[in-house]
């Protein structure tokens, strides 16, 4: 049974936020699964499963608030160097949650990462999720698996150069005419608004390269709780913090 004081506080936050601007795009660094498990004497994969179970709830909260795009960072390129006995179960958990989210038909799934660095089955699961939900008119969910901010920029520049080369341009011509918009058109999140708000759980106060290019003007919110313990009230507090800030673009 929920604490009545908690419920009352949550209702108050919802009422306050009804009069404020909501971020169009929320980036979420889901951190703390392993520490959540360790604190309970459980194996790391138990923490990852608990974290996976939280994702659908979080997407519902975002949907209810009016958010249009969510980017979930589930696995970094650095994580791919973990020992196989830890990485393989984590990949199976990610594949399972992505398949379940796609099967629900509620959200439009979009892979955001270097799929060529992932195991074949993991990459195939992400591609199938995108294909299954291509026609869904709802919250866009970027699933950042095999994601690194520097890797994304390198991939964007590579894609840009290959595209221009196929069009017959030479390197000097490309360098002369290159703009930041050109690079933006080749990012994993091309065509989407940049994140207005980036949230990180577990108390760590760093971005670790998440949406490195896109987050130049983002607001950040660092939450002490581990991701599996993240509650709707924690999300509402993040939205309230965002609403209370005066955003400055370049000043």
From TrEMBL:
Positions with a binding annotation for Mg(2+): 31, 219
InterPro entries (UniProt xref): UPP_synth-like, UPP_synth-like_CS, UPP_synth-like_sf
GO cellular component: plasma membrane
Cofactor(s) this protein requires: Mg(2+)
EC supergroup of this enzyme: transferase
Binding site for substrate: 32-36, 48, 76-78, 82, 200, 206-208
EC nos: 2.5.1.-
GO molecular function, one term: ditrans,polycis-polyprenyl diphosphate synthase [(2E,6E)-farnesyl diphosphate specific] activity
Note accompanying the cofactor annotation: Binds 2 magnesium ions per subunit.
Record has Transcription as a keyword: no
Keyword annotations of the record: Magnesium, Metal-binding, Transferase
Subunit structure comment from the entry: Homodimer.
UniProt xrefs under HAMAP family: ISPT
Family designation: Belongs to the UPP synthase family. Z-FPP synthase subfamily.
This protein's name: Isoprenyl transferase
Annotated organism of origin: Janibacter alkaliphilus
């Amino acid at each position: 049974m929920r604490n009545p004081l908690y419920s009352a506080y949550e209702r108050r936050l919802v009422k306050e936020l009804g009069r404020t601007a909501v971020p169009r795009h929320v980036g979420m660094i889901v951190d703390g699964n392993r520490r959540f498990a360790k604190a309970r004497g459980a194996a790391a994969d138990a923490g990852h499963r608990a974290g996976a179970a939280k994702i659908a709830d979080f997407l519902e909260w975002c949907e209810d608030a009016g958010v249009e795009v969510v980017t979930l960072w589930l696995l970094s390129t650095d994580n791919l160097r973990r020992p196989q006995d830890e990485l393989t179960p984590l990949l199976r958990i990610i594949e399972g949650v992505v398949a379940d989210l796609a099967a629900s038909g509620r959200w439009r799934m979009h892979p955001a990462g270097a799929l060529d660095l992932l195991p074949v089955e993991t990459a195939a699961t992400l591609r199938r999720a995108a294909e299954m939900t291509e026609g869904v008119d709802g919250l866009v969910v970027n699933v950042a698996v095999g994601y690194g901010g520097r890797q994304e920029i390198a991939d964007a520049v590579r894609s840009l150069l290959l595209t221009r080369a196929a069009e017959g341009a030479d390197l000097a011509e490309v360098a002369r005419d290159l703009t930041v918009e050109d690079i933006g058109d080749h990012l994993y999140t091309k065509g989407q608004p940049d994140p207005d708000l980036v949230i990180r759980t577990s108390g760590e106060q760093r971005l670790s390269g998440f949406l490195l290019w896109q987050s130049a003007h983002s607001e950040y919110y660092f939450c002490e709780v581990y991701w599996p313990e993240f509650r709707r009230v924690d999300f509402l507090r993040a939205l309230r913090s965002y609403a209370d800030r005066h955003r400055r673009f370049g000043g």
